Amino acid sequence: MQFRYGLVGRNISYSFSKGYFTKKFETLGLRDHSYENFDLPQIEGFVQLLESQNNIKGLNVTIPYKEAIIPYLDVMDANAKKIGAVNTIKIEGKLLKGYNTDVYGFRKALEPLLKKHHHKSLILGTGGASKAVAFVLDELGLAYQWVSRTPKEHQIDYASINKETLREYPVLINCTPLGTYPNILDKPPIPYEFLGRDHLLFDLIYNPGKTAFLKEGESRGAAICNGLRMLELQAEKAWSIWRGTELSL
Q1: What is the pLDDT of residues 105-128, one digit of tens each?
Q2: Domain total for the chain?
Q3: Alpha carbon distances (Å) from 111 to 71, 120, 202, 212
Q4: Of 59, 83, 100, which residue sits at a domain end?
Q5: Residue of 18, 66, 108, 237 marked catalytic
Q6: Does residue 85 contact residue 132 with C-beta atoms inside 8 Å?
Q7: Is the bond preceding residue 191 a cis peptide, omega within 30 degrees?
Q8: H helices within the chain, ranges in order?
Q9: Band of the pLDDT at 249, cuts 50, 70, 90?
Q10: Tens of pLDDT along 192-219?
Q11: In terms of domains, do 138 and 197 share one?
Q12: Taking the CB of residue 48, how many other CB atoms lie within 10 A of it?
């Protein structure tokens, strides 16, 4: 029997997950395990995907479907339900259960970097991944402010960020796709000239390893971190869910 896993998303040929799990299966000698990219132009194609493919035991979900996938699931674990975003699905027969392993990955990657003065954060972007980030910040007791190009209630726009804002919020977390390969010159529109040594910049992007956002911070003495460690950790959490050996925080 073949045990198949994969990634659901749009324009995911660059995906971290396929390479990571393919190598993992080879290292573990799991020749009957495989990992594939399921690139869907629209989320509505998810039903056909399940109907046309056999032996899929688990899926990861990435941009832009972490929220759109929810109506197709039968069950969600408590954290995923609170967050309102899913990036991991366990398939048992016809039962689809949704999880959010971004929480585990982000928390484990962020915590070692935090210092006493890192008490407030700007969350740049309001997509599915940003919800997991906010969930973790709540758990850690860090206040945060959402930033969006089209702000809703309790959010601000990028034009509102100034010197005082960056002084008040020393942690900046980029949850937007700005800067992802091949558009490596893109970055969130904030006044980088006001960054300094007290700041921590965390970018959920991992390709390139050092985005324009991170370079701006590094050049001004800020601590920086890309999304690779978070991805590795969330992938291991997903694997533990699929195997029934869940990792805990």
Answers
A1: 999 999 999 999 999 999 999 988
A2: 2
A3: 32, 14, 11, 23
A4: 100
A5: 66
A6: yes
A7: no
A8: 16-28, 45-52, 78-83, 102-110, 128-140, 163-168, 212-218, 228-243
A9: low
A10: 999 999 999 999 999 999 999 999 999 9
A11: yes
A12: 10
Q: What is the pTM (predicted TM-score) of this model?
A: 0.91
| Owning domain of residue 198 | 104-229
Asked which of 100, 120, 137 is the last residue of a domain, the reply is 100
Taking all residues of the chain, what is their mean pLDDT, rounded to a whole number? Answer: 95
Q: Which two tokens stand for residue 26?
A: 């080879």
Q: Is residue 49 domain-shared with residue 163, that is, in the same domain? A: no
> Would you state the structure tokens that stand for residue 221, as one six-digit string?
């003495």
Residues 126 and 34 in one domain: no
Looking at the domain assignment, is residue 15 inside a domain?
Answer: yes
Contact 8, 60 (CB under 8 A): yes
Same domain, 222 and 108: yes
Q: Is 66 a catalytic residue?
A: yes
If you average pLDDT over residues 49-58, what whole number do you get?
92
CATH of the domain at 112: 3.40.50.720
